[in-house]
Amino acid sequence: MNLENWLTLTGIISSGVIGYFIKYFLDKKAQFSSHNAQIKRETYQDYVDFVLNFLKNIQEQETAVTEEQKKMLIDNMRKFHNHAVLYASPKVINAYSDMLQNSYHPATNDNSAHTMVLMTNIFKEMRKDIGLSNRGLKSGAIRLMRPLINDYDTAVKPNEIMLLTNAHNALNNKASKK
Predict the structure, then answer these.
(1) Spatial CB neighbours of 24, under 8 Å, sequence gap ≥ 6
(2) Per the count of CB atoms within 10 A, which of 12, 15, 43, 149 is most buried?
(3) pTM for the complete prediction?
(4) Per the domain annotation, does 157 fall within a domain?
């Protein structure tokens, strides 16, 4: 074999080895992304299930929120936060922290509609993070809460744009004060 054949043979073998390692690392990355996406979906599903069940229970009971319910709420919020730190997108984490910051200052809250918009924003960002579209939901996806509100069409729907605008303005004002 002459030098030209050795160079050709070496080039072919090294290309094959390099290709193998590239494929190996890409497969590992895809496997990690798939596992991460599965954990993310489960975490988001647990959060949504908890929040919607909590709201349903609050609507059905005739008394104020009990201490036990408050403790359960805080425990579930902490649990979600622990998972969100590792798996959620920055937009989900920001939407979640906006909603919590709003809840920490109840005396300065505009009303429960503002909290609803912030909660809906978390759901919207979760959907986006797992690859779902929010395009047909309109009004910043406030309509995700429609099944939970008996008088949505008369009380909320006419004010969707105003609610969304007010919530975004409030968030922007808080961000600019920092």
Answers:
(1) none
(2) 43
(3) 0.71
(4) yes
Residue 122, both tokens: 């978390």
Angstrom CA distances, 112 to 109, 118, 152, 170, stand at 8, 10, 13, 14
pLDDT at 167: 67
Number of domains observed in the structure of the chain = 1
Q: How far is CA 137 from CA 9, 114, 154, in A?
A: 59, 18, 18
pLDDT at 8 over 80: yes
Range of the domain at 158: 36-177
Asked if residue 4 belongs to a domain, the reply is no
List pLDDT tens digits, range 12-37: 999 999 999 999 898 888 888 888 88
pLDDT digits (tens, 9 = 90+) for 148-170: 777 778 877 777 777 777 766 76
Residue 170: what are its φ and ψ, rounded to 5°? -65, -40
**By C-alpha distance, which of 135, 35, 130, 39 is closest to 91?**
130
- For residue 24, the number of C-alpha atoms closer than 13 Å in the C-beta half-sphere is 6
In a domain, 10, yes or no: no
